[in-house]
Amino acid sequence: MISRVKVLITGKNPDYFVKKIIQKKINIYTLDRSYRGVLVVIDYDSYKKVKEIKTTYTIKIVERFGLVKYQYLFFKYLIFICCFIFGVFLNIFLSCFIFKVEIIHSNQNIRELVRNDLESYGIKKFNFKVSFDKKEQIKEAILKKEVNDLEWLEIEEVGTKYIVKVEQRKKNKEEDKCLERNIVAKKRAMILDIEAIDGEVVKKKLDYVSKGDIIISGLIYNKEEVVAKRCAKGKVFGEVWYKVEVELPVNYYEENVTGKKKRQVEVQFLTANYKFFNTFKTYQKKVYPILESSLLPIKIQVGEYLETNVIDKRYTVDSVDEEAIKLALSKLKGRLGKEDEVISKKVLKKTKKDSKILVEVFFKVKEDITDYQDITKINIDELNKKKE
Predict the structure, then answer these.
(1) Which residue in 23, 81, 176, 221 has its CB near the most CB atoms, within 10 A?
(2) What one-character DSSP code corresponds to residue 174?
(3) pLDDT tens per residue, range 319-339
(4) ∠ CA(363), CA(369), CA(375), 5° rounding?
């Protein structure tokens, strides 16, 4: 970038001094006369030669062009820029600290319980913030430790404050009285396991049952006669079968934010861009401007980098099985309970339609099929008479 300056020459006869400049073979790009003197535009390097000419004339720079202009402005406002950058870094540094931990719950005992646990893991006032992964680990550790008191816990970062939302575990009160009932099958299945506590088991392992079939009876028999009614207690697990249909595009692109993020101050000066830390391999970027001037070729901003997992694939009918099973499994898990588990999985059929591949996946699931049938209204005497 060419650096030039506009110089004001004042004195008795400025034109005489201009002639001296020409004699020194210094290029003059423009020459203007005003009531103050003569204005000439010369190269910045030539200005140094002009200053070396011994004279009584006053020579003063009134305007700068090109790189020298930006250098002049930079050094003129250097203290301001340094203070501003220091302020930004101080703000970023302070934003790494926790200044308040707010626990939201109506029960003071629960608030104290959670506060003590958080402090034991380093989440307390004037400590450094923890990473997203560490925060999730702390949350899981507290829930595991306080399994009898806490149902759910969430730690949310808002500026320099952590807001902790917590839900107390509701302890199930024991039933005052267990009403007479049968344990029956919730759905069609093959019995894998019967955990009987009370009642009469009328089915066995590997038996096939339909919805409503009695597995543990609350009717107690002596030979062929019903002698009592009880509340059947226990749990039954069966093998249940599912067909899940999923579709995948031939060209599949997915970008997910992991939750990890990095912030850094970035400085753009002229065409150069300066970053102070490394970023993620794949990321989404948000920019928060701090300083931008029409006079200075400098721009200071905070870049927030959100780490992403990017999947960019092309599927064929032959290569789609693994991804289809993952997608189907994710879809199926929304219908299963905590104790249910997938025993086996198999792709049944695949069809390509337009730009999509349709896949049908078959699952065998070990599932809790326990359900209840009320028998309080059954009259034992009438039931025995009917059998007679």
Answers:
(1) 81
(2) P
(3) 889 989 998 998 898 788 888
(4) 160
